[in-house]
Each structure stands twice: as structure tokens, then as C-alpha cells.
Specification:
By secondary structure, this protein is an alpha/beta fold. It contains 23 helices and 12 strands.
Length: about 475
């Protein structure tokens, strides 16, 4: 990988390996993340203090997600049918470009010029805001965290708390500079009130509301959205038009699958027993009802998910419920932050999802941005084997699998030099005589190799040059009379 690469749509992206050093050398960023992550981990641990209850609830959640994925094609057809019966118009989008075109077309047909948005990672994934703004449609984020980073002109650095990388002083300075009439204050209540005053007017003026979806229930045609601020409910209820955008993997089979997953999601994400608002949307406003949109549209996005679904092992990636517990416990993410990953989904889940969506030729360094410590798998509420999938993707990067299930961009990381190196290593370690010979040569001449010489310089850039022993363990044992070969 070069320091600069491109997404599948041609957008230039700085590689993780090129951006990590700057993040590691930013003491303010490190302090912001350390403080936030410590608090989130403590709150989550308190919510799952009973190991037996955690194991039982986790098993229920995993079973619900695995069952839904096993029946996904059927569930999506049933979801479309039930949503249509409920009055929700369903659209299918294979690519981000198709999804953006669908949303833009709906808005233009309705004459909408101003949109209020609830929190949605899928719309971040397809860069919907930029697409709408380019076509003259004003888009305002209503989630407080999303609103903050929209004012800052940044992307989310966390999938649950988008502005977790900022402290009070930074937000106070941002509000003073970007919100008319707002003075500088670091009082949290005053900052929240300033955002509320601004956003209340946006809710009233909006021609349409756009949201994501936490779960889409095929049994009832219900869209489930959870939130803490009430902004999601205002975005989906107050404007006359509501457009929900979600990935196809969010489908659930039955309404009874929702409660255990809600409990797992909220407790894993923010350490709460439940969120303030649980919204269940099953259609537009009906005759006699006093609120709700007059029209509801659901956009189901593929964007590589069908390809992921086709691989029995990598399919586990799609179980994710976007709780971000894996990020909060990841020793890499908590030190470099979300923007280092460049793409929409950072942290452990991003390291397995992004390379499959964007391609290993574009994001092939991300599976390597891990110590494989397994903390992410231990806390994942739906038991995604993230370390195993990381190893699989590392292998796919140099040796792609069968064409039917090959990861996009597989084999792009292959180099002749590395291949020869592993072949030579295999030869040395499978031949006792050659192994002893190479060991003697390393003991005699290894320390003379300069640290700046490739490929050793890739090691010595961050570590001390290895010192080779003049005598092997076998030689020392033989000399001491302990060799019994």
C-alpha cells in the first residue's frame, strides 16, 4: 500500500499507516479518547456485572442475528411486502450512487429543498449529505454529535458518539465561531441549549426528514430507531416526508427478536439499560392521526453486502448491530481515534467491513492495524469472531480465495519479494541441516547487517536492531553436556 490510495469511487484516501503517527503524537487527541474510553468501558462493565445474564442475553442476540442472516433473501422480500402493505415505499440500491440518486429523486419529486437528518452511518457511508448539497438541497444534522462535526466540517470519529474526539473547549470555540450570537462558554448545559435553539427552527422549516434504521422487522414491516435526544423522532415525525436509509443486513425476522438486541445494543454502546427513545415506524400518517409524515420511503442499500453474504465465514461481519463496544475496548482505536481509519467505519468492525466494501486494494492495510488481542471479540454482543476474520482478510490480501467468494481486491497485497521470503523461510524451517547452517551464519554475520538496509529498516524504524546470538541453544546444550540427540 502507498500512503495515498483511492476508494472504489475514486476518492483519494490516506492509508491508515500514513496517518497513525500524527494521531499517536497528538497528546490532546490521546487524552480525549483515553478519558472517554475509560468511562464507556466502566459503564458497560457495570451493566453486565452478572456473567450468567450476559452469556444468556448474548446467546439470544447472536441467535436472532444469525437466524436473520441465514434467511436474509427471504426476509428482505417479506420486509418489502409488509412495508408496502403498511404504506411504506421500498427502494433497492446496489451502489452508493444508486442510493444517492434514489433519495435525491424522492426529494426533488416532493419539491423538498431543506432536509433535517437523524443519525445514520449508512448515509455517511454513501456521502449523502455532500450529494444533496451539490444539488442545491440544504441538509442539517440533528443529532448533537453529528451537528457538532457538521459545523466543524469533519466526519464522525466513532459510530455512536461522532464527536468523541473533541473536548468541551474545542466545542465551545466551534459554537462561538459558527452559531450566530453564541458567546464562548464551556458549560455543557449552555452549549446543549445553543444547539437546541438552532435545531428547533430547522425541524420546523424542514421539507423532509432522513434517518437510518437500527432494525427492520420483516414480520410487521416495522422500522426500529433508537436515540437519546428526541431529534430522531422529530426528524421522522414532524416533516411531511420521511426517508429511511439502511443496509440490507439490518433485517430481523420477528418483532420478538428486538428486545434482547435492544438491551445488548444500549448497554454495550453507552452503558445504559435502555435509550430514552425507542421509535417504531410502521407506515405514514393514517386518517385520523394527528402527527407523522404523509409519506415514508425505505431505501435498502447493498454496497457489497451481498458479496460478503456469499462467503459463509465472512458473513459473520453482517451480524454487527453497530454498538461500537469493539472500538471502546480496542487498544489501537483508543490510541489513534476514528479519523485515522479514514473511512466511515473505524475500529475493529471497520477493519473487517471496510476492506470488504471498498476492496483490499484500497483498504488493505486496515486488517493489519490490529494486535489480534481478542478484546473486540470478548465484548461483541453478537459474538462476531473479529480476530479470525482479520486473519482471513490478511490472507486474502496476498492469496485470494476462489472466484465465487473472493474478497474485492484480493491478491493486491502480493509482492514477489515477500513471497520469496516466506518460501525461503519455509525451506529453512523444514530442513534441520539448512536451519543449523543459517543459524550459524546469522550468529557470525547477522549483527554486521546495518539497520538502515532494507528490509531490516522496516523493523528498526520503530525498534532496536535485533542482536543475533553467536551460539544456538543446541550448541550451548552440547557444550554443557546436555545434548541427547
Amino acid at each position: 500500500m502507498t500512503p495515498e490510495t483511492r476508494t472504489a469511487t475514486g476518492t483519494p484516501r490516506a492509508a491508515f499507516t500514513g496517518k497513525a503517527p500524527a494521531a499517536l503524537n497528538d497528546p490532546r487527541l490521546r487524552a480525549n479518547f483515553r478519558r472517554a474510553m475509560d468511562g464507556l468501558m466502566a459503564k458497560r462493565a457495570a451493566q453486565f456485572a452478572d456473567p450468567a445474564e450476559w452469556a444468556a442475553l448474548r446467546a439470544r442476540g447472536t441467535e436472532a442475528r444469525a437466524r436473520a442472516l441465514a434467511k436474509l433473501p427471504e426476509l428482505l422480500e417479506r420486509l418489502e411486502r409488509r412495508c408496502t402493505e403498511n404504506g411504506i415505499v421500498v427502494h433497492w440500491a446496489e451502489t452508493p450512487a444508486e442510493a444517492n440518486a434514489i433519495v435525491l429523486g424522492i426529494l426533488q419529486a416532493a419539491g423538498a429543498r431543506r432536509v433535517i437528518k437523524g443519525k445514520s452511518m449508512v448515509t455517511e457511508e454513501i456521502h449523502l449529505n455532500a450529494h444533496l448539497e451539490a444539488h442545491g438541497i440544504t441538509t442539517v444534522e440533528s443529532d448533537l454529535g453529528e451537528y457538532i462535526i457538521q459545523l466543524a466540517g469533519e466526519a464522525p470519529s466513532h459510530i455512536v458518539m461522532p464527536c468523541i474526539h473533541k473536548n468541551k473547549a474545542e466545542i465551545a470555540a466551534l459554537f462561538a465561531a459558527r452559531i450566530p450570537g453564541q458567546g464562548y462558554t464551556e458549560t455543557v448545559d449552555e452549549l446543549t441549549a445553543a444547539a437546541r435553539r438552532t435545531l428547533r427552527g430547522e425541524f420546523a422549516r424542514a421539507d423532509a426528514g432522513i434517518s437510518g434504521v437500527n432494525f427492520a422487522v420483516a414480520e410487521t414491516g416495522t422500522l426500529v430507531l433508537i436515540e437519546n435526544e428526541g431529534n430522531g423522532r422529530l426528524s421522522t415525525t414532524l416533516p411531511p416526508l420521511h426517508i429511511a436509509v439502511t443496509g440490507i443486513e439490518k433485517a430481523l425476522e420477528n418483532l420478538e427478536d428486538v428486545p434482547p438486541l435492544l438491551s445488548l445494543l444500549t448497554r454495550s454502546a453507552t452503558g445504559q439499560p435502555i435509550t430514552t427513545y425507542v421509535n417504531m415506524i410502521s407506515g405514514p400518517r393514517r386518517p385520523g392521526e394527528k402527527d407523522g409524515p404523509h409519506a415514508v420511503h425505505l431505501v435498502l442499500l447493498d454496497n457489497g453486502r451481498s458479496r460478503i453474504y456469499g462467503d459463509p465465514e465472512l458473513r459473520d461481519t453482517l451480524r454487527c448491530i453497530r454498538c461500537a463496544a469493539c472500538m471502546n475496548h480496542c487498544p489501537v482505536y483508543t490510541r489513534v481515534g476514528g479519523h485515522t481509519y479514514t473511512f466511515t467505519y473505524p475500529g475493529p468492525i471497520g477493519k473487517i467491513l471496510t476492506p470488504q466494501i471498498e476492496g483490499l486494494d484500497c483498504a488493505g492495510d486496515q486488517p493489519h492495524a490490529s494486535s489480534l488481542c481478542g478484546a473486540c471479540a470478548e465484548v461483541c454482543p453478537v459474538q462476531i469472531p473479529i480476530p479470525e476474520l482479520l486473519v482471513r482478510l490478511r490472507g486474502e490480501a496476498v492469496h485470494p480465495g476462489p472466484a465465487a467468494v473472493a474478497v474485492k481486491g484480493g491478491g493486491s497485497g502480493y509482492t514477489l519479494f515477500e513471497s520469496l521470503g516466506w518460501r525461503c523461510s519455509t525451506l529453512v524451517f523444514t530442513s534441520p541441516r539448512l536451519y543449523r547452517t543459517v543459524g550459524r551464519l546469522a550468529g557470525w554475520f547477522g549483527t554486521l547487517m546495518p539497520g538502515w538496509l532494507p528490509p531490516l529498516n522496516r523493523w528498526t524504524r520503530f525498534r532496536s536492531k535485533p542482536r543475533f546470538a553467536r551460539h544456538s541453544l543446541h550448541q550451548l546444550a552440547r557444550k554443557g553436556g546436555y545434548d541427547h540427540e
